Amino acid sequence: MRKYVPLSGILWAFLADTKVDVSQPPVETLGALLPAGRLITDPDAMDAYARDQTYAAPGKPAAVVLARDTADVVTVMKWARQHLVPVVPRGAGTGLAGGATATDGCVVLSLARMTAIQEIVPQDQLAVVEPGVITADLDRAAREHGLMYAPDPSSHEISTIGGNLATNAGGLRCVKYGVTRDSALGLEVVLAGGRVIRTGGRTVKGVTGYDLTGLFVGSEGTLGVITAATVRLRPAPADAPVTVLASFGSLTAAGAAAAAIMGAGLRPSLLELIDRATLRAIDDYRRIDLDADTAAVIIAQTDGPECPAAELVRHCEEAGAEFAAASTDEAEAAALLEVRRMAYPAAERLGNCLVEDVCVPRSRLPEMMERIERAAARHDVRVMTVAHAGDGNLHPLFVFDRGLTGPPPPVQAAADEIFTAAIELGGTLTGEHGVGVLKRPWLDGEFDPDTLAVHRQIKQALDPDGLLNPGKAI
Q: Strand 358-359 vs strand 382-388: parallel, antiparallel, or unpaired?
């Protein structure tokens, strides 16, 4: 296993390998091509569109375009190709990998005002939406027809469908219903230079040609700009969900319970694991009154008869749970789940947070959590971990001083060790947040040279001038 290069020293050099001319663009000519009110050039107003939820320092954009329709996006892409100006697409800016941060001299292309739910077709269980639709709004609209939109990232009340597609976002329910790619049937995409293509369709099945829909989902705006999506809806559960909470004296026992649940073929709608450090922070935040000796908690939820709550409790008890119980009504189910949702705010009140996103085979989850704890102790940094245990997807939150503009060297070293561990255990650098800027230094640890070369060949074929979100993802 190679030694990974830490973030320091190379993280912000991501433009060095692009072919983009970042000299001052003639933005007034772009403004003349767009309807009034679409173009922003005031530096203070642009600042709000230049960054995402990470500490990644953005460049200074030349302009921001507030697109209202596909025609606006086509105009921007044609103009950008003519003047060799980079374009950084963005949704709500909730990303956690630096994927939507501006580069110097770019046009930030905001899709947040493309908010139409164009169709909901109950008979075909699908919807056609623009990229600026808020994820939770689509779910609420679908439920009016007895359906649901399954992907539910933690930011579902503020994140957009376009951003979810760009990063192949997951969420709590993905253990049963899959990630965003599993709900994407077809896309409308504007390519570099302004060509518009449509991938996939409205059918459940379709294998004509290459899977271009799958290619664009998760590409982080580096191959094209998604301007509409046909997405799969699913029948909403008929019964109210039941939540199970189980506490354990060790991470190993909690991990064994998660493995037993999935190994038994049960299909919980969510299966989350929370470590001791996170539990202590949540208790300080909201007084959940868990036993001080609790090392980990599993929170599981079932929304259908194929996964009886009693079976979830049984597997937790057999794995050594000190306490395990199921909710008795809908309000209690929601209250127990709220423990999981408090993890991020509990961490954020303690300082700046670097939120990471490694994923390992489910059987290696306990070992990965133990290696996270060892890395935190070795480098004397505060790390709080929550995990989508049913997927093996872990989110270590590194907490550091608010006065710092980025993670200090001990945090960088601990993150490097954790990324290395994930790859050694047969895992990946990111399960749902994307690579963005922050994880590019580790890509050659996960990909062999030939595989990485294929990624770059695809990028070259679709974006030969390197204008789309340069320096991100690959």
A: unpaired
Mean pLDDT by runs of 10 across the 474 residues of the chain is 38 39 69 95 94 87 97 98 96 89 96 98 98 97 97 90 95 91 97 97 92 96 98 94 94 90 92 93 86 89 93 96 93 86 88 90 89 94 93 93 88 93 94 86 88 95 96 89
Distance from C-alpha of 453 to C-alpha of 378, rounded to nearest angstrom: 36
Angle ∠(393,397,403) on CA atoms, nearest 5: 160
- How would you classify the pairing of strands 63-66 and 107-110? parallel
Please report, for residues 56, 277, 386, 438, the alpha-carbon distance to residue 419 in angstroms, rounded to integers and kept in the order given: 18, 20, 16, 12
Fold category of 242-424 in CATH: Vanillyl-alcohol Oxidase; Chain A, domain 3 (3.40.462)
CATH numeric code, 27-113: 3.30.43.10
Handedness of CA 13, 19, 23, 24 (dihedral sign): negative
What pLDDT does residue 341 have? 84
Neighbours of 187 (CB within 10 A): 24
CB 220 within 8 A of CB 472: yes
Q: What are the tens digits of pLDDT across the range 148-180?
A: 999 988 888 999 999 999 999 988 898 999 999
Q: Taking Cα atoms as reference points, which of 215, 225, 212 lies closest to residue 80?
A: 225
pLDDT in tens, 238-268: 888 999 999 999 988 998 999 899 999 999 9
Q: What angle do CA 362, 367, 373 make, to 5 degrees?
A: 125
What one-letter code names the amino acid at 92?
Answer: A
Do the domains at 27-113 and 117-235 have one common CATH topology? Answer: no
Helices (H), 289-403: 309-318, 330-341, 343-348, 365-379
The values of phi and psi at residue 90, to 5°, are -155, 155
pTM above 0.85, yes or no: yes
The sign one gets for the Cα dihedral 148, 151, 155, 161 is negative
450 neighbors 457 (Cβ within 8 angstroms): no
CATH code of the domain occupying 117-235: 3.30.465.10
Reduce the DSSP state of residue 159 to 3 states and report it: coil
226 vs 91, 210, 221, 459, CA distance in Å?
A: 11, 18, 8, 16
Domain residue spans of the chain? 27-113, 117-235, 242-424
What are the distances in angstroms from CA 8 to CA 56, 62, 313, 385, 415? 12, 27, 45, 23, 12
382's tokens: 């505060």
Structure tokens at 70: 């596909």
The tokens describing 313, both together, are: 């409790």
* Two structure tokens written together for 318: 């057999």
Instruction: Give the pLDDT confidence score for residue 28 in this predicted structure.
Output: 87
Which candidate, 435, 11, 19, 440, places its Cα nearest to that of 192?
Answer: 19
